[in-house]
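Blinded run. Sample ID left blank on purpose so nobody reads anything into the name before looking at the predicted structure. Input follows.
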Amino acid sequence: MKSDKFAGIADYITQRRAQKGLSQEALAYDLIDYHELFADLDSLTISRWERAKVSPNLRRQVALMEYFGDKPHTLLCDPAFELKQLPSLDAFNKMLDQQFKYNHVMGAHPYISPENVSFDKLCKRSDEAPQMYGWIANYHTNLSNGREQWSQDFIKSLADVDSTEVSFYLVNGLLAGHIFMVKVSQETFDQLLFGKLQDHELAPAHLIASEQPGCLYMLSTYLGGAHVSEDFVAQLLFTLVEDPQNTSFGYKARADIGIKLMDFIGGEAVHTGEVLTERLEGAKYQGKRRSYVSFSLQRQVLISSPLFINLIRNSK
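Blinded prediction complete.
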């Protein structure tokens, strides 16, 4: 029987290799065949890993755990599992503080006290959901400065699909954040990211069932205050990794904070929208304001993100 408790990656590799009945050399050959991340691996490196002389980077740790048939996020997010090279959340929290001080488009909510740390978290089955769909439609129309017109009925039609993930964050009755994710095929995912299918053209027929392998696409999101930020980001990221059928995540960043978040979790910019001339419109990318910047993030990259690991560890 496999043990589920490990002091750290050195203990993990030692135990799992023994359970598999492999020598260090045999494991090295297996890993080379398993994933390109191990292309230059040899038995000496594995020996150094097991003696804790050096640790494989987080990407390699994720691949190792998948090779042995374990769930990487379950192990890496356990505070008892030692991670020597895990950076702190200081840089991420500093970025949030800076955004919340001045950005009211996708940042600090102007009607909520920054000292207020309590919030209610609602799902799409709540009685208040229909009204909030209207708020999301208004928010997006305003965020895009009227370039993209959404309606309450459009949002509701997608929310009614079982695989759609919706969370609302309320502070004193005010909507202080929301997450609205749909699940689509790889083909539809690519069309959305590259602008071949516009967000407002999405229909329930484009969405797929939760149990099918596919991609999560963030149709709309808003983070309105530091008091909901940790739960908000943890919810957002964990939704992708908790189900191995979710192969990747993508969305269009329409404000600066969205691009900065992708910098922390390793998202890859794959497409950009039109160049905007107004100084505070859209998202700044490579020196220009864009109507949006599309990002794609693979599940394995997210699991090895220090931000994701830290947030989940801190929530336990």
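Unblinding after everyone has recorded impressions. Strands lie at 120-123, 165-171, 174-184, 214-223, 246-253, 268-272, 283-285, 288-290, 293-298.
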